[in-house]
Amino acid sequence: MISPDADHLDQGLLSPVRAGTAAEAATGDPALLQAMLDAEAALTRAQGPRWAADAVAAVARADRFDVRDLALRARPGGNPVIPLVADLTAAAGEEAGEYVHRGATSQDIIDTAMMLVATRTLPCITADLTRTAEALAILAREHRDTPMPGRTLTQHAVPTTFGLKAAGWRSLVLDAQDRLRALRLPAQLGGAAGTLAGFAAPTGPHEGAPEERAAGTPAPIPATSPLALVTAYAEELALPAPHLPWHTLRTPITDLGTALAFTCVALGKFATDIRTLARTEIAEVTEATSASPASADTSVTTDTAPGTSSAMPHKANPVHATLVTSAAQQAPALAATLLGSLAAAEDERPAGAWHAEWQPLRELLRLAGGAADHAADLAEGLRVHPTRMHENLGLTDGLIVSERIAAALAPALGRARAKQLLTAASRRAAAEGIPLAEALADTLPATELAELTELTEPAELAELTDPTGYTGSAAALVDRALERAPEAPHA
């Protein structure tokens, strides 16, 4: 039986979308603990003497602390900073320990740590989004003019091109990337109730090394303006300084959460289309069935190759698309929790609403990171089947271009009459399994046939019912879409 105190309780066994990704490593408990320690060390550097800051920094390493022990000891106070401060103070030593957590509150440290974790995770996500966008741009160019059925409400509509679909997916990826790069993730520092009162310039003995102070004299907080201290603290962490303490003004959290959720669902649209197009009866695309170059491993066997089924050897499941979809399904509810926590953030520190943010925000970072990783592999390894697309264009024997024929008949017959004839011919073609051109010729009355000699000639009808010649401005739209470049990261 496995002990509940076992190390690393969550190894991602039920979350293959993020298991083994850079985002998972950047958001794990050790990474979060290190971020809290970094926040504490930065606060000491910003307001304490150099010798104390050096002493705290020397011991502010996650591997010196027991994550599980901190988690269990967090229960009485409701957050892990309380036991961490006690342990860090003891590790720094009696003199330097006096400068640990001076004037701060637990929320200052956890909020700042979450911003640090996000700042360290986002480059992993945006790098994979760049890979995805670049691969989709290649597909869009290569298949700019590759015709395929356009589908609306699950049915064949009019022809489109695969290049236009790929360009659309890329556009969503760039939208996600732009949102992530525009985020402003500030440090948090407000003290007990967001007034910075605990950082007010003190009066009393001068500050110096332990041996320079009288025995038993407490070390004072340096005479630094609290507002200047906030700026110095943020600079130590390479984070933006907050305009105000945001203990209950949760814009950074909701902005981050919604941008991550958008990333998941934008990639989810790409994945959903791939899952549809990869169906056996459609088969217009397939995922790569071997390990991608980015994650290739010579030890990969047929049991662990992407898309393998545990029971059916013939299957090559669209596993990347499946896992991206799983992230897209989870993300909106997690973002909703963060939005709800903003509204519930009462007074100067909320009871429960702040605490409710921690896991959803971390999970969103993991899901977005995992989805971006799988989406990049999916886009880079996607196999496109133009022949199958052409075959599918012919499934309706010309019905897919009924709009085009109606437009050709309208000048002579009028729009209403042309639509009436096309509707009748389309139903006959579908019922009897004959080409639309044949059904139309049989449906037109003799008087109208005489008026439409040119349009009812077999060669003319064949041209009108050829779906490959009716893709509208798809190619031009692809060209326009590919003119868009990713926005530069904000300074």
List keywords for this structure.
mainly alpha; two-stranded antiparallel ribbon; 4 strands
Q: Can you put this structure into words, describing what you see?
A:
The relative contact order is 0.12. Helix 7 runs parallel beside helix 19 (474-482). The strands form two sheets. The chain has a two-stranded antiparallel ribbon with strand order 1-2. The longest helix is centred in the N-terminal third of the chain and has 37 residues, at 106-142. The protein is 56% helix and 3% strand. The chain contains 19 helices and four strands. The chain is mostly helical and 491 residues long. Strand 1 and strand 2 form a beta hairpin.
Cα Rg? 31 Å
Largest sheet: 2 strands, antiparallel
Strand order in the sheet with the most strands: 1-2
- State the total count of DSSP E strands: 4
List the total number of helices.
19
Mean pLDDT: 88
Structural class: mainly alpha
Q: Could you tell me the strand content as a percent range?
A: under 5%
What's the layout of helices and strands?
Layout (H helix, E strand, L loop, with lengths): L21 H6 L1 H19 L2 H10 L7 H7 L7 H12 L13 H37 L4 E6 L2 E7 H20 L44 H12 L13 H27 L7 E2 L32 H25 L9 H29 L1 E2 L1 H8 L8 H12 L1 H18 L3 H8 L2 H6 L1 H4 L1 H7 L9 H9 L9
Antiparallel strand pairs: 1-2, 3-4
Helix pairs in contact: 2-3, 2-6, 2-8, 3-5, 6-7, 6-11, 7-9, 7-19, 9-10, 9-11, 10-11, 13-14, 14-15
In a few lines, what is going on in this structure?
It is built from 19 helices and 4 strands.
